[in-house]
């Protein structure tokens, strides 16, 4: 998620099922309108502090994080009190009645979360999220990454990835390498929308050269 510090113009981010615990890198993404963070390791709603300064944020998916807690009403009211511009939270439309009720039932967040350091320089929450990231079932990783990659491709008028083709190479890799590749693919697809014609031509030429190199390597192996 630290890459977001260098992407101030990004509009849509899909980081579900990634062991993320810190939202600080997002606070400069002023054009961000949609943020998908389902099934991460966000332990405190204080992380919303970093999203309060994002004027265009309209869609947030934060469900299935530890910060949601045992009381779904309190969780939703707190999110809406701090992010009243949201139009959809956890795939559910936000109503005017909820926004009014959030002023009563929600808790206002006025400061960033405290970070507890450990000996090696990581925060405790980061260490626990790194450990938890490897326990996610393969089927869940595949389903989530495929769903969100296809959503991004639909926005770019590209054909969705067939599930059988996607899984044929996914299960030959470790969870870590597969997640890394899926994240890189999502990032590339999102960044393509930021390019002009000249930039797209450079990408096209680079991809063509890479494909030729792979095809040549396959022929040599055969």
UniProtKB/TrEMBL annotation:
GO BP: any one term: cytoskeleton organization
GO cellular component assignments: ciliary basal body; photoreceptor cell cilium
The keyword Repeat is assigned to this record: yes
Alphabetized UniProt keyword annotations: Leucine-rich repeat, Repeat
UniProt keyword S-adenosyl-L-methionine present: no
Superkingdom to which the source organism belongs: Eukaryota
Oligomer and partners: Found in a complex with CFAP410, NEK1 and SPATA7. Interacts with NEK1.
Protein name per UniProt: Cilia- and flagella-associated protein 410
